[in-house]
Each structure stands twice: as structure tokens, then as C-alpha cells.
Design a protein that fits this description.
By secondary structure, the protein is mainly α. The protein has helices at 2-18, 35-49, 69-82, 88-97, 110-123, 158-166, 169-174; strands at residues 26-33, 56-65. The mean pLDDT is 86.
């Protein structure tokens, strides 16, 4: 992660050398998921190298941050309970029977497996990233988004449209992406590494 921060820092410096008209403008760094590591480390690198310079760092934003597996998981379960998605009893059983530091399917206790299964059943039909939104129930609707979608007329399949769009050949050519012609489609969360 330090290497990523260093590479991103070098990119920013070189980019501002190429486009000096952006020097001194307010800079905000944002990201989500594993950027819970990348964003603060880049901010630290900027402040360590140029606390008062043309990199005018004003703030950071991290959404759905991965920071620490144990506390991230416990925070998710606390959120579920505080929003009545799981019972207080389920949360208590989870805390008493599961070791979130080391619990995995291969070493999970029977008590932990029971409460974990119950929690999974209670949250199965939810988008845990937006508990108030409907789910996309038809993943084949990926080519054309609904017209006139607004915040009140939320389209839960919007991620599918983005994925389909970013896998179009002409889009990848325009973005100079997939130059190696990968044998699989781009996905926002892929297990192919």
C-alpha cells in the first residue's frame, strides 16, 4: 500500500507538471472499499512531502471503507441490529459465539454457524449497501437503462448498465483499456486476480 501511495503521489506531481493551470487548486481525494487504505495513505504521503505546496490537499472522502476486517464486520452487524434488520438477540449470540478475528467457514463453531445462517437469511433480500433501495431482480437487463430515472425513481439495475457499457469494445478502445484482450469481462468486484 505504501508503493501505491508513492505511485499515486508521483502521478499527481507529474500530472500537475503537465497541467500547471491546476496547481494550487483545492484537492480532495476520494475512494471506496479498499480505498480505506489507499486514500489516507496517499493523503499522508502528500502531507509528508508537500505540506504547503501546489498540492493543496483540503480533505478526503472514503465510502464503504475497508479498514479492519474485525471492526468492519462488527460495525455491519451493529448497523443491521440498529436498523431492525436483525434482532438484538441475534447480535448478542453473534458477539458471544463468533470470533470475528479468526472465524472462517473451516473453523466456525456450530453456534456461530447457526447465528450466521440466521443473519444471512434475515438480510438475504437486501442491498446491504442501500437497505432502502429495491434489488435488481433481473440481471439480464444490462444493455439499456430506464429513461428519466431520478432519485425518486431509482433503478436498482444501474450497476449492470455500467458493467455492460464498460465491456463494450468501442468504449474500451476509447478508454485505452483492455489492451491485453483479457479472456473475461471487466467486473466491479472480480475474483480473477
Amino acid at each position: 500500500d505504501r508503493n501505491t501511495a508513492s505511485d499515486n503521489y508521483i502521478f499527481l506531481v507529474k500530472w500537475l507538471e503537465r497541467f500547471p493551470e491546476f496547481k494550487g487548486r483545492d484537492l480532495y481525494i476520494g475512494g471506496e472499499s479498499y480505498a480505506g487504505h489507499y486514500v489516507p495513505q496517499l493523503a499522508h504521503t502528500i502531507l509528508a512531502h508537500h505540506p504547503k505546496s501546489f498540492l493543496n490537499l483540503k480533505g478526503i472522502l472514503i465510502g464503504n471503507a475497508v479498514i479492519n476486517d474485525e471492526t468492519d464486520l462488527m460495525g455491519m452487524y451493529d448497523f443491521f441490529e440498529s436498523h431492525a434488520l436483525i434482532s438484538e438477540d441475534s447480535l448478542l449470540q453473534l458477539k458471544n459465539n463468533c470470533d470475528l478475528k479468526t472465524e472462517s467457514a473451516s473453523v466456525m463453531t456450530e453456534e456461530c454457524a447457526v447465528v450466521s445462517d440466521q443473519i444471512d437469511m434475515n438480510t438475504y433480500y437486501l442491498d446491504i449497501y442501500n437497505i432502502y433501495a429495491p434489488l435488481c431482480l433481473n440481471s439480464t437487463l444490462t444493455r439499456r437503462p430506464k429513461r428519466g430515472t431520478t432519485i425518486r425513481d431509482f433503478d436498482p439495475c444501474s450497476d449492470n448498465y455500467v458493467q455492460a457499457y464498460l465491456n463494450r469494445h468501442e468504449v474500451q478502445v476509447a478508454l485505452h483499456a483492455n489492451g491485453t484482450k483479457l479472456p473475461y469481462e471487466w467486473m466491479p468486484c472480480s475474483s480473477v486476480i
